[in-house]
Predict the structure of Response regulator transcription factor.
Amino acid sequence: MIRVLVAEDQSAVRAGLVLILGSAPDIEVAGEAADGEQAVALARELRPDLVLMDVQMPRLDGVSATRIVVGEGLADVLVLTTFDLDEYVFGALRAGASGFLLKNTDAKDLIAAVRTVAGGEGIVAPAVTRRLIAEFAATPVRESTADPAVLRELTRREREVLSCLGEGLSNAAIAERLEMAEATVKTHVSRMLGKLGLRSRVQAAVLAQELGI
């Protein structure tokens, strides 16, 4: 079972999300939070596999809550937002979120996204990720805090994989491009994230764009 904590301040939206997730045989709603502080507290108490996190919540916003949840290793975070590309999304991904979804996502795609993130793939939809990365790259005024020196820890193959992640490619697409087994790609991604101190593939994609590789 995939245990999910739903963090959403609008009760009607939260009830809808709980209903959708509860309809999946392999997903259990472990708890519900109405604000960011409650989300962090329940994540610490319940230790869910994943937190479905709204970015705009009272008391503590979703970006700050994501940073705490991910930083303490409490759960993976899948961000919910009304806008497909905005500063909240960038902030949440930098904070370690594994991906993001729009609130108008249909039930089937919501369930699929939860399964995808819980399975460790981390990229909800490569097409959406590519749009995100393209928007990120097209905004040079956004300050980058990435240090190119971090790449010294990576092998040549790991750098190639990082570059592919920067394009929003899935494991299967990376395997095809680099002519290696998909299982080998997963191994490279895991080692690369560990060396870079990152929690998600999307974080790695953003880093790749910031470093221009």
The longest helix spans residues 182-196. The longest strand covers residues 27-33. The chain has a mean pLDDT of 84. Residues 142-209 form a domain with the Arc Repressor Mutant, subunit A fold (CATH 1.10.10.10).
